[in-house]
Amino acid sequence: MNTNTRKLVSRQMLLFELRNVVGNPYVHIFGIGLPALLAILVCRVASSEAPNEMITSMVTTSIYLGMGSLIPLATILMGYSIGYAQELDKGIPQRMQLFGIKTSVTLLNRAIAEIIFITVGFLLFFTSGYLIFDLKRPVATGIFSYILCMLLFSLICLGLGHGIASLCHSFGRAYCVSMITYFAFMILGGMMGISFDDLPEWAKFFSKLLPVTYMNKDFYKIWTGKPYNFMPLIQSFLFLTAIAGILLFFTGKNRGGSKSVKMK
User: Cα–Cα distance between 10 and 208 in angstroms, integer?
Assistant: First the structure.
């Protein structure tokens, strides 16, 4: 069991994947800088219109909790898909397979590297929030639920990003699809100035299927320990997990098919 673990996760592979993440400029701009900047700007506007300090604290905390979902969206969904598409263009995954490094091993090490990076990103994000604004302190169940949701969402984004890059198989197409997906999540999740209630009915249907909607709209209740119906949030996670699983299934099937063609 220990031998298999060493084969799956190694220090060299983990450092290699960490360098890939840190060296991607998109994750610093869209994954760390943009969420913090948007959160600060929106909170400034919202706090100036709030009637009292209690409402201000509630609004700013809710905004920060929602904007936090942009970190895995940009860092993993967009950043990973773009970076992996570039690697596919250069034939790096194929060369690694020649040395016996399977795609599953690369994906596992990349997942750990991405989790390390976004953990640092969240620490910087919420540190700036608590230094600038009077954010509400979470209850134990609230912070546990938030960490769990962001971890699950990050893994889903990794599956979606890997699927997008593998299907597009080029930097340009992967960049286009991942960017459209990124902004679709933002718009439908109510993070582009349009709240859930202001969306048209057809958009509300799709919005209810995304976890970011509930993170942006409802997570303040969970954060502060108020009663909350978790079922819609859980259903949205199950739906997005199914989509990511289907993408990974088809990319694996295509990869297997291409191998068999080459062997022939």
Answer: 39
In percent, how much of the chain has pLDDT > 70?
A: 92
What DSSP string describes the chain? -HHHHHHHS-HHHHHHHHHHHHT-HHIIIIIIIHHHHHHHHHHHHHHHH-SSHHHHHHHHHHHHHHHTTHHHIIIIIIHHHHHHHHHHHHTHHHHHHHTT--HHHHHHHHHHHHHHHHHHHHHHHHHHHHHHS-PPPPPHHHHHHHHHHHHHHHHHHHHHHHHHHHHH-SHHHHHHHHHHHHHHHHHHTT-SS--GGGS-HHHHHHHTT-HHHHHHHTHHHHHTT-----HHHHHHHHHHHHHHHHHHHHHHHHHHHHHHHHH-
State the residue for tokens 């057809």: 202
Place of tokens 């950043």: 79
State mean pLDDT over 214-241. 92
pTM, entire model? 0.86
What residue type is assigned to position 58 of the chain? M
Radius of gyration of the chain, Cα coordinates, nearest whole angstrom: 20
Span 80-105, average pLDDT = 80
* Residue written as token pair 């994750």: 27
- Quick one: what percent of the chain has pLDDT higher than 90? 28
- Give CA separation, 232 vs 176, 179, 215, in Å: 30, 26, 11
pLDDT at 209: 92
Identity at 194, one-letter amino acid code: I
* CA distance readout (Å), 231 to 105, 137, 178, 240: 33, 24, 28, 14
With beta carbons less than 8 A apart as the criterion, state whether 13 and 106 touch: yes
